[in-house]
Every structure is written in C-alpha cells, then in structure tokens.
Amino acid sequence: MQPDCGSLVYQTEAALKTDPDGRATSRRSRHLTEKRPYRGLSLNLHIGRCIASRRTELGMALDDVARGLSLSGEQIAEFERGAARPTPPQILKLCTLLRVQPSWFFEGL
Q1: Residue 17: is its pLDDT beyond 80?
Q2: What is the Cα gyration radius of the chain?
Q3: Fewer CB in 10 Å around end: N or C, the chain?
Q4: Does the reported pTM lie above 0.85?
Q5: Where are the alpha helices (DSSP H) in the chain?
Q6: Which domains does the chain have, with CATH numbers?
C-alpha cells in the first residue's frame, strides 16, 4: 500500500506586488493544486503527515491513537505537526494501531 502522505497540496506565502515607487499595489496568493512530493520537508513533518492521513483514513480520533501509545493527545498532535518525532518503539506501536509496515512511514522520501 502506497502512503497518501508522500505528496501534499500546499500553498505558498502571499506575494506582494509593488508599483515603481515601491508601494504595495495588490496581494496575490499562489495556490498550487497539483500534488508535489515532500522534497525539503523535515522527516518529522513527513512522519507526522503520514500518521495524520492514516489515522483519519481509519476514522480514528487523536485520543484513540494516544491511548494505544499510552501518551497524551497533545503528544500525538505534536507528532502530526512535526514538532516531535516518535521513538522507534512508538513507531512500532503506531504500525500496529494504523495497520501499516514500518517502512510505510519512509516511502517517498
């Protein structure tokens, strides 16, 4: 099974257009709708997006995953945001909960 977390629809920061005098004339946002690989994103964020996508695919709540790992919901949210990385034993428990192989978290890197 290919992880859905290997690509991301993303949006860049708004760009300012200026006139010749340097005054802002308009704000323009570039929205990219095509799926692009996670090039340049951190490993923490990649793993977190994988956890979040699989958890929602299975219809699990954050608290369900937290209970399965004996952690708080905030710690799981930190994993999903990329603010923290699960330890190897936690990744193995996540594999059981999310019904994936450990290599699934690293596909597409």
Answers
A1: no
A2: 18
A3: N
A4: no
A5: 43-57, 62-69, 73-81, 88-98
A6: 8-106 (1.10.260.40)
